[in-house]
Amino acid sequence: MMRSNNKEADHSEKVLNGAIGCPGIVIGQTCIYKRRKPTVSSTRVADDGIPHQVDKFHQARKKAKKELQHLLGAGPDEDSVDLINTQIEMLKDPELCERVEQQISEHNQSADSAIHNVFGDYLEAIKQNHREDFLERSVDIADVRDRLIQIIHNHDDEIAAGSIMVAKELSPREVIAFSNQDIKGIVMDRGGTTSHAAIIARSMNIPTIVGVKKATRIIKAEDEVIIDGLNGDVIVHPTEKNKEKYRELIEQQVQISGDDEAVCSQPNRTADDHPFVLRANIEFPEELTSVEKYKAEGIGLLRTESSYLRESQFREEEHQEKFYSTILKATDPHPVIIRLFDAGGDKLFKESSKEQNPFLGWRGIRMLLDSPDLLDNQLRAILAAAGKHKQRVRILIPMISTPKQLHRIKERIETLQHELEEKGRETDPDVQVGIMVEVPNVALQARLFAREADFLSIGTNDLTQYVLAVDRGHEQISSLYEQRHPAIWQLINMVAQAGIEENTPVSVCGELASDPISACCLLGLGINELSMNPLILPKVKKMLCNRKLTDMQAFAKDLLEADTVDDINTLFLNWKESTNNT
Ligand code: PEP
Ligand code: MG
After folding, report:
1. Given the DSSP bridges, would you call strands 224-228 and 25-33 parallel, antiparallel or unpaired?
2. Is residue 563 part of a domain?
3. Do 220 and 9 touch, CB atoms closer than 8 A?
4. Which of 1, 466, 534, 565 would you label with 181, given CA atoms 20 to 30 Å apart?
5. Residues 476, 416: one domain?
6. What CATH code is carried by the domain that includes residue 248?
7. Long-range contacts of 100-106 (CB under 8 A, 24+ apart)
8. Rounded Cα–Cα distance for residues 538 and 230 (Å)
């Protein structure tokens, strides 16, 4: 993963440009990441190479064991302790060791291939036994297998804590894994600002620039760079003068964050005294500090699939219940909108398979309805947590495109509530069930869906990608990906109207709500519940508090008459200028 510096390289300052994945400024040294294919070697090992392969296996085993013991030392919860101990026992199992050694020495297999085969046999054996706990056990076993293979593949790789990761592209899972290794910035050749990798980087508050086209060709390992996440620049080999300038900017940022707290202690009211609601979009408990600091009125979108990508034992019911309870406790008395796993697309679960068009494929509700264990575990965990925090939990379904999908989830919820009650568990009869509006037909048929759902949450990130047929993470066509497109405003207006006519609350949780001027338009269209990354909340709030609702309504009316993105941009510019004069 690390490459040595070319001594002859040009060390003059260069500025590369991209799009802002997560704002913020950092100065640091780079580390280059190259994704390795998760394949195992099929090459036959020569007889004299056998001892080396056996040694590689035992070294990997020791390292994996040490990592797990380290995790135990960090004081995890009871369930995690059990899981970690089971995995340690697996690594110590003499029979398993013997079988891997045998595969290497008798079949001349490489260490990774031997591990893959022996663990494969274990998985097959428990599957054949039809054990009830097959799914959970197989996840744990596969976890140990993957870690061992990963250690063998990345034999010489170490990512220095505090470095700036430079990569062609990172998947959401990789961003989560690297944030656990304490990286302080990310630069990617590819990706757009609303790609899931960028959204997770924002959740982790790791300054990130995406779509820096030749980053991995120009930047070498251990180069000094500045990430300017305010302008979307990456400065390679910065001059002393520039470093000084950016150090001052970092200090100013700390100051601004202090002002943000003051803004957030004001009530949520427009200049003409109309109330609005701002909630937080979060993925991880670490974000709860910002939720509290910036006074978000609860959670508007809890992206649960990110926790699953972070740790596979998250799929266990008790584990999830604890997680939901932590979020509910920290945000009392506000509502928490928990979105069911939105797996698929670029967020791959164990169940996911390779698809030609993953964003149009087996994603969100489509996968959940085909995966009853995954769905039931999650619903039971949410319902149990809701029973302890009455009238606060709202369940949000991703990628809905038919009313039937919503009916099936509602039926499942009813059955599981009964089962919980029979077991003497407390439940909440008022749990609301809403849907994401992100597939275009749902926006076009908004009245039908508004009659069926308890609430509608507009996901402008996917709605834009599906309406305009532009991959949200594709840097080459990113200029076509425009959430402020007139067609999007018209669809949002249709959903807002449907909500009013059917008396069904409508909110926006896509990135459009994080743009202060767009937020004014949304209020102008009658949507007064918005949710966003909590770090952005003060900026949006400042704009909404400074302007009158009547002006926002007039502004929204003009927007709906616009034909092109250029017309919209002109209207936005005028609004900005008029705001500066207030
Ligand atoms: C959206 O699509 O707008 C949304 C909020 O969901 P996600 O970004 O997680 O796909
Ligand atoms: Mg979405």
Report:
1. antiparallel
2. yes
3. yes
4. 534
5. no
6. 3.50.30.10
7. 100/57, 101/54, 101/57, 104/45, 104/50, 104/53, 104/54, 104/57, 105/50, 105/54
8. 16
Q: Do 89 and 31 fall into the same domain? A: no
Enumerate the H helices of 265-364 as residue ranges. 288-293, 305-310, 317-331
Do 442 and 426 reside in the same domain of the chain? Answer: no
Q: Is the pLDDT of residue 157 over 50?
A: no
> Ligand 1: which residue has its CA nearest to atom 4?
459
- The answer to whether residues 173 and 128 belong to one domain is no
Model confidence over 97-147: pLDDT tens digits?
999 999 999 999 999 999 999 988 887 877 777 655 565 567 678 778 878
Pocket of ligand 1 (CB under 6 A): 199, 301, 303, 342, 438, 459-462, 509-510
| Nearest CA, atom 1, ligand 1 | 459
| pLDDT one-digit tens code per residue, 269-286 | 999 999 999 999 999 999
CA of 408 to the centre of ligand 2 (A): 20
Give the domain-ending residue among 99, 131, 152.
Answer: 152
Domain-located, residue 131: yes
CB proximity list for 333: less than 8 A, separation 6 or greater: 392
Question: Which amino acid, 428?
Answer: D
- In a shared domain, residues 130 and 245: no
Residues 76, 188, single domain; the answer is no
CATH number at residue 310: 3.20.20.60
Q: Which domain holds residue 241?
A: 13-35+158-257
CA of 465, closest atom in ligand 1: 2
Q: What's the structural domain count of the chain?
A: 4
Say if residue 317 is in the same domain as residue 400.
yes
C-alpha pair distances (Å), 375 with each of 20, 348, 412, 432: 35, 16, 9, 17
pTM of the model: 0.77
Which tokens is 306 given?
């990110």
Residues 63 and 148 in one domain: yes
The half-sphere exposure of 409 on its side-chain side, counting CA atoms within 13 A, is 32
The CATH number linked to 117 is 1.10.274.10
Q: How far is the centre of ligand 1, averaged over its atoms, from the C-alpha of 58 (Å)?
A: 43
Whole-angstrom distance, CA of residue 456 vs CA of residue 564: 27
Inside any domain, residue 269? no
Six-digit token pair at 168? 């062609």
Question: Token match 């022996």: residue?
Answer: 118
C-alpha 374/C-alpha 315 separation (Å) is 7
| Per-residue tokens: 98 | 């013997």
290 within some domain:
no
One-letter-per-residue 3-state SS of 171-221: CHHHHHHHHHCCCCEEEECCCCCCCHHHHHHHHHCCCEEECCCCHHHHCCC
Which residue bears the tokens 């709500």? 513
Ion ligand 2, residues whose Cβ is below 5 A away: 438, 459, 462
Q: Ligand 1: which of 339, 342, 347, 359 to mutate, judged by most atoms within 8 Å of the beta carbon?
A: 342
Per-residue pLDDT of 415-433, as tens digits, reads 999 999 999 999 999 999 9
* Single residue among 152, 174, 195 that ends a domain in this structure: 152
